[in-house]
Amino acid sequence: xxxxxxxxxxxxxxxxxxxxxxxxxxxxxxxxxxxxxxxxxxxxxxxxxxxxxxxxxxxxxx
Length: 62
Prior knowledge:
2 strands, DUF1127 domain-containing protein
């Protein structure tokens, strides 16, 4: 089970997309995200936070 906190998720989002975007999604994220739970991954996908987009935004290759 890969669980991250909302704080950790926002740190990554802030680093990848900037503080304005992180603040805009803050209320849409649950306090804990299970990255193996389809419901939680759907929340991230609905916000446009797919693994490949995050890696690309952070300057890496997927």
